[in-house]
Amino acid sequence: MNSKYKLNKLSEDVINKIAAGEVIERPASVVKELVDNAIDAEATEITVKVKNGGIDYIEVTDNGSGIPQKDLPEIFKAHTTSKISNIEDLNDLLSLGFRGEALSTILAVSNVKMVSKYGEETANEILFSTPEDYKIKKAAKESGTTVIVENIFGNIPARKKFLKTPQTEYKKILDILLPYFVVNPQISFVLIKDGKEKFNLPAIKKGNKGEITKERLEEIWKQEMVKDMLPIFFDGNGIQISGLVGHPNSHIKRTKDQYIFVNNRNIWDNGIARAIYEGFDRYIPHGEKIPFAVNIQVKPELVDVNVHPQKHEVRFLNPYRIYSAITNAVKTSLTKNIQYKKEEWNVDDEQDFKQNKPTGLENIDRNVHGQSLGLQYDQPKSRDIRFNRESSFTVKEGLNFSKEILQSKAEDLEPFGDSERGDIKNIFQIFNKYIVIEFQNNILWIADQHAMAERITFEKLLQSKKDIKIQKLLVPEVVQLGISEIELIKEQKKFFEELGFELNVKKNSIEISALPVELVQSDFEKMFNEIWEISENMESTEKNFERRRKDILATMACHSSIRSGQKLTVEEMRGLYNQLIDCENPYSCPHGRPAVWKLRLEDIDSNFERTY
User: Fold this and answer.
1) Residue 497: which pLDDT band, with cuts at 50, 70 and 90?
2) Residue 206 exposure: Cα atoms within 13 Å on the Cβ side
3) With contact defined as beta carbons under 8 Å apart, do 350 and 374 qualify?
4) How far is CA 500 from CA 20, 192, 346, 496, in A?
5) Is 320 helix (H, G, I), strand (E, B) or coil?
6) Distance between CA 40 and CA 594 in Å, rounded?
7) Best-predicted range by mean pLDDT among 44-58, 61-75, 349-363?
8) β-bridge partners, 455
9) Spatial separation of the C-alpha atoms in residues 235 and 244, rounded to whole Å
10) For residue 258, how many other CB atoms are within 10 A of its CB?
């Protein structure tokens, strides 16, 4: 046996500090636990104050039922709770907090003070020097409880050094709070950051606990998106499902605007998310995302909420029943609310729709002039080539066919030197999409006009602001944003200003009054949506910021004025060509797609078996 081996029994202090790591990961964890307690105390008003991202100071005040003086020291002891008394109580659990470890673990890693009033003439304050050393005295407070937490992880430097920047920690707090805002419309919430009021959400008069309302969602998400959201509902077999899902036309590649609640508790469950998307089958393209906020009320005995240390997950007794109910609820809402229109007939209301078309989704004509309400469906494609006017052969198929018979060799990617190309003999556009350039020395280019424009704009944006041409707008362009996006653009405002943007940040939108001239014709809302997808989860370290910067610039370049499907003049085509060959990398767009397909005459002759 190793002579240095020694068995140690850990002290209560060390045990508490280690255990705290399961519950208190960062300042946002403290906010979550304190807001849980405030809601369980039936508060109708909750105010959260944070300083320095919550690292230095967190204060949560509520007007709930309060805590009696005799219980103030006891509630800070490990696993002391009023929510349960034995294991069977978990079967009937509906409160957010219940294990009694929150306050004790917060106390183990920070300085804590609490003021509370519970049916007594005056409030009482408890102030801790250490978990065992505290003082209780009378205090002034009308109702409810205030908890102040300072210097989180101040006594555990090894943990504190892993906290991020104050702005990032504040963003984590905001992410924690948003679901509470959504599922508790009956509560007014105030959030104060570094002495400045950031959000003041009044209680919705007719809002009930657990009810997801458009009125509250519009304070958090984009108003235009929320306006078109569809209600879902299901009630049966001990399960009640309610909430809102996005209209199919609001689908995007990625979104954080997705909330799942079980008995008003914010969780995430991949099975529930998949069930929602099953309901959208045939309504949105495969792989696209949709915003949703769904609350599932289920009998407590049918769900276990005690499977995750931070209660982020739950386990259902019969998950298939939950998933199928959600899918049916979504499908029913879509069938009822989405109206298909055809040129030969017009739908004025749901009744007319039922008279003209079957309600079964499988019987709906899904190919009305190639699309239905902007929802495109893949059609079977034939590889046969028909050289007649009735040919169904598409542009994409033609290019794919040409690519197969005219395979470019690896050595084709040579430098774009003048001697290698020669002078332009002819230049023209095909399909309003590609530019064909014939050179004097028997070389042919087929260039993607949008990929060319992307590369040119990308390399211009990489330059400093003084080299970028700025366009002032006569009327500012307004882009609607959600709370998270507003905070993100505040953090990155300097970055956009260096690119030539002039931005005025408002509560739920930004006003763009100037921007790089190449982006004047852009779809700004779509562009910023794609920027959030890139930057949302990347930390602001120097290395990652540089990577994020190039990804954002590539996205912005994608929204340049010259796009696929745009008719170009000969002068515009020559201008694109001249700018492309001056680029550092003229071979591809900034996302890596090829910009130019190059062919030699001898390669074309060879594929046609021509020897003369």
Assistant:
1) confident
2) 3
3) no
4) 46, 31, 47, 7
5) helix
6) 57
7) 44-58
8) none
9) 15
10) 17
Q: What is the CATH number of the domain that holds 247?
A: 3.30.230.10
DSSP secondary structure of 64-94: S----GGGTTGGGSTT--SS-SSGGGGGG--
The residues that bridge with 582 in the sheet, in sequence order, are: none
**Structural domains of the chain, count:** 3
**Prediction pTM value:** 0.64
d(CA 598, CA 416): 11
Task: Using alpha carbons, select from 434, 440, 401, 437 the residue that is nearest to residue 594.
Answer: 434
Beta-carbon contacts of 585 under 8 Å, excluding residues fewer than 6 positions away, are 455, 459
In single-letter form, the type of residue at position 426 comes to N
Judge whether residue 443 has pLDDT over 70: yes
Distances from the Cα of 357 to the Cαs of 282, 347, 363, 601, in angstroms? 17, 10, 8, 55
Per-residue pLDDT of 272-287, as tens digits, reads 999 999 999 878 888 8
Report the DSSP pairing between strands 188-193 and 443-448.
unpaired
User: What is the per-residue pLDDT across 506-539, written as a single tens digit (0 to 9) for each?
Assistant: 888 999 999 888 788 888 888 887 776 665 544 4
Q: Are residues 284 and 433 in the same domain?
A: no
Domain that holds residue 290: 214-337
Question: Taking a C-beta distance cutoff of 8 angstroms, is the pair 437, 577 a contact?
Answer: yes
Can you give the C-alpha Rg of the chain in angstroms?
31
Among 239, 300, 307, residue whose Cα is nearest residue 268: 307
Count how many residues are written for the chain: 612
- What pLDDT score does 14 carry? 59
**Cβ neighbours, 10 Å, residue 20:** 23
The single-letter code of the amino acid at 310 is: Q
- Written in H, E and C, the secondary structure of 510-535 is EEEEEEEHHHCCCCHHHHHHHHHHHH
**Any idea what the CATH number is for the domain that residue 608 is in?**
3.30.1540.20
173: phi then psi, degrees, rounded to nearest 5: -65, -45
Residues 51 and 195: their CA atoms lie apart, in Å, by 8
- pLDDT higher at 305 or 265: 265
Residue that terminates a domain, selected from 175, 201, 227? 201
One domain for residues 195 and 220? no
Q: Do 239 and 318 belong together in one domain?
A: yes
Instruction: Let me know: does 152 contact 109? Beta carbons within 8 Å.
Output: yes
CB of 29 closer than 8 Å to CB of 110: no
Q: What's the whole-number average pLDDT of the chain?
A: 78
Cα(200)–Cα(185) distance, integer angstroms: 13
Helix (H, G, I), strand (E, B) or coil at 187: coil
**What does the alpha-carbon distance between residue 51 and residue 394 come to, in Å, rounded to a whole number?**
59
Q: Is the dihedral of CA 55, 19, 85, 237 positive or negative?
A: positive
Q: Which amino acid is at 412?
A: D
How many other C-beta atoms lie within 10 A of the C-beta of residue 37? 22
Query: CA 376, CA 70: separation in Å to the nearest integer?
Result: 66
Report d(CA 573, CA 64) in Å as an integer. 69
Is residue 121 located within the same domain as residue 229?
no
